[in-house]
Amino acid sequence: MMEVSIGGNVMIIQKVSLYSSNLEETKNFYVDKLGFGLLNESINSFEIAVGTSILEFKEYVGKGMPFYHFALNVPGNLFREAKKWIMQLVSLNNDEEGNDEVHFESAKAFSCYFEDPSGNIVELISRYGSSPQTNLTEPFSAKNLLNISEINVTTDDVLNVGSELQQYGIVLTDEDALEPNALNFLGEREDGAFFLLAPTKRIWYFSTKEAVSYPLMIQLKDGRFVEVNEDGNVSIGTK
Length: 239
What we know:
It is a single chain. It contains 3 helices and 14 strands. The chain has 239 residues and is mainly beta. A 7-stranded mixed sheet has the order 2-3-4-1-12-13-14, with helices on one face. It is globular and about 45 Å long.
């Protein structure tokens, strides 16, 4: 395809649409239990506010039970408050050493992980080196989250999909080249938004689950989008 010039645009994840085989329980989990604001709902979907982003879940009627990994940005100074909040509501996942949090020194970030009723591996990440800071006037809650920070794109065509993402201005974060059998981060660190590009069967961090490709749609604020269809094919473009 022809190279597309999108230079200079900050990457902001405006909306992520995922699929769920457990839609009603997932809605109750996010809205009633965790306190996310419900924006829209229908008989087969609902949307919640994640700071300035929108997270949509749609009913899944295909084979398997879809799950994804996504991360939510916590203000740079509020990791401890966010962790205390979520621990009162859900059980955190542990890594192989039994830790329930991780410090990413190179990324200057702290994270913890949990699973929702759809089996999604959800990460709360506080990028103390780059995310805005907030002064709390009341206990931490879902309304203090900033936006959607990360979303996985699982495909066995990592090299071609990664190359096309870069043609649309979504650059590799740190790596010199795409790694077809590993987890690749794409996105500028200062934007605080990333695509996680990796093959199927890779074990997710803070989980025992193997990555599987399921349909999804990611919409960026500037009109760029990434869509994975039922067959695992990835489309990238602008609207």
